[in-house]
Amino acid sequence: MEDKLKIKISIADRVYPLTINPRQEEGLRKAAKKIEAMIKQFEQSYAVRDKQDVLAMCALQFAAQTEQKDIDKSEEMQEAEDKLRSLNELLQKHMAS
């Protein structure tokens, strides 16, 4: 069993103590850096001062990215299935003749 690791992550001027599996640390730290960068970008681009609004905009942006990736994967899977179906039909016709 892996030992738990206690870390502190800072987001929007608040520190969040977390107890995690060591293998999660890199991902969490990278995510926190991305959030901080996005916060800075929103604050500069839209002159938003309320951290709650900025965090909501960040959450929406990340959720939209995740959803778009899922949509893209689904479309790619459908294309692959269609191509495989076509290949299978060609093989069936070839084998029947």
From TrEMBL:
Coiled coil: 25-97
GO terms for biological process, alphabetical: cell division
Pfam families reported for this sequence: ZapA
Domain of life: Bacteria
Keywords for this protein: Cell cycle, Cell division, Coiled coil
InterPro entries: Cell_div_ZapA-like, Cell_div_ZapA-like_sf
Protein name (database record): Cell division protein ZapA
